[in-house]
Structure formats: structure tokens, C-alpha cells
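Task card 7
Instruction: Convert sequence to C-alpha cells.
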Amino acid sequence: MLGVVVDRRRQEEAGLRLDQVADRPLLRGADLEDQVAARLQQRDRLLDQPADGARPTSPPRPRPAPSLRPRPLSVTEIETWLRDPFAIYASHILGLRPLDPIDESADAARYGELAHAALHRFLSAHGAAYPDDAARLLAEAMDQALTEAGLRAALIAWWRPRLARIAAWTAELDRERRRHTPIEALRTEVTGEYRLKRPGGIFALHGRADRIERRVDGRLAIIDYKAGAPPSPRQIDAGFAAQLPLEAAMAAVGGFGPELEGEAAELAYWHLTGGFEPGKVRPLFGCDPRATALGTAVARERLIALIDAYDDPARAYLALPHPADRPRFSHYAQLARVAEWSAAAEDG
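Output:
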């Protein structure tokens, strides 16, 4: 930026000198004023032009050696890999980490963390045994998580009623679910790993599931809490929102432990807003066990194809290759100079 300011000052000073030369009485007396002024103004305009012409920036196409390409990735990073491969290149291969904005405010991500923490605390204490006063206990867990966060008073006052509404909604939903489908075991914040043998070497898929239920019939329900908007059905069908199906694939091979090994009969997002409508269940594949099994198998095959494709040294880590399915936030868009080459593409 300093260089731009200096160059601008030089251009302004040069223009001032050219104006002074063009105003000399000698030129006016020789009837050369207009000709010289035109030539000097033409040269003045050329100061703003690069010597070899303007050339738009090309999108980056990094192709690191296969030995440098990451072999362990999380289920959420798989979605990043699909939508913005350059972000995987920047974070895992270049080792770059984005800095939080100086003026960053508390947002839905932090709000979601509090709801996650409270639900984990409550369910860890009670598990499959559901207490009669679940709504009160869950509200207390929400309030405790909010108090421990050390937020300013105004934000606490704003979020407390929203978290209380989430507690009441979740408690009632849980009660109804257990009434229709008894639960044998329930675990929250469960970590796991799935190791896939590929021609390029072992690829380790790891992740953490918000909630896994084992029903009395041995099948599983895997649930993810979302404070922000869950992915759309179109994004799920297109394979760009693979988190829950991949967690189901992990569970099918015992990736979350023998207690939670089995076929998933239900995959769902619980959209926790705390607003007028405190929450909403957004099931995948219509909660149809057959459709869920098919969706899980498709997600696994897509992951295998993705791993093998990036084991090819010629495969580049492109930035935002699918304009219609960009991630909500792209931390490395500035590094990839997306604004420059995408604007050039639109102009062309």
C-alpha cells in the first residue's frame, strides 16, 4: 500500500511539472503549446499503465508432491476438500492458520459451542436413562455453560432465554423419541477413526460425532447439532455435505468403538436456533433405513474416489472450483487472490 501511495505522488508531481512546461510563454509564442501539451498529457496517461499491458491474475493450481499431501483428514475437512481444495493445501501443506479478526464479535459459532457443551454435560450425566425433570436439568446445564463462558452481561442476557428455549425443545423432542424408539446406549462427543487402504497408502479419516444412539434393535442414530443453517438436501445429494454419511460409514466398521458399531438407520441435523421456533429436526434420506444405507455407501465411494484422485501428482488443489457450492467462509480466499481472477472471469 505504501508503494502505491508513493507511485501516486510521483505521478501527481510529474503531471504538475508537465503542466508547468506546457504553460511556458515560449511555447505559446511559437504556436507549439497545443502540440507539446498533447504529447505531454499522453505521456502522463502512460504513467498509469504497466509496461507490458494489464494481465489478470490466474487461479492458483498448486500440485505438491504426493508425499506432502495429507493422509489424515477429519470428516468436516472432507467437505472443505470437496468445496475448496486450496484451503486444504494452505492449511495442511503450507501449514498456514488464519488469524481471527481483531474486531471479531461473538457469533453463532460461539453460541453453538455453548449449546453443545450443555447438551454434552446433561447427556453424559444421564445417557439412556432419561430423568423426569429433564427440561429443568437441561436448562440448568445451559445456564451453567453460559455462566462459565465469561461473556459480557449484555450477551448473557441476550443468549440466556434462547438457550432456555433450546433446552425445553430438546427435552420434549428427546422424550418423544425415546417413547417411540427405546435407546440402549447413548454417547456424545464421540471421537473415532476409519483407516482406508488405498494404492497411495493408508488414509485415516477421523471425526467427532455430536451424538450417537444405539437402539434396542442394534441400529444407530447419528445426530449433529447445528446453530447455523444445516446443509440443504441438494448439497447433501451432490455430495458436498458428507459429514453425517461419513460418520455412518465410520460407525459401520467400528470406527467409534465396538459399542457403537453398526448400521445407521437415522441421520439427522438438529437445527438449534432458540428463536420463535427453538429448533427443527432436519433428517437425511427421509429417515428411511434403506435410503440411509445407500447414502452411506455412496459417501464412502465418493471419498475413495477423492483420495485416489488426489494421489495423482497432476491433480491440483484448486480454489473454489464449484461456484454454486462455495463454503460459507473461505479463510484462504485472499491468499488465493480469488477476488482478482474471479472478477477477471466475470468481466470476460
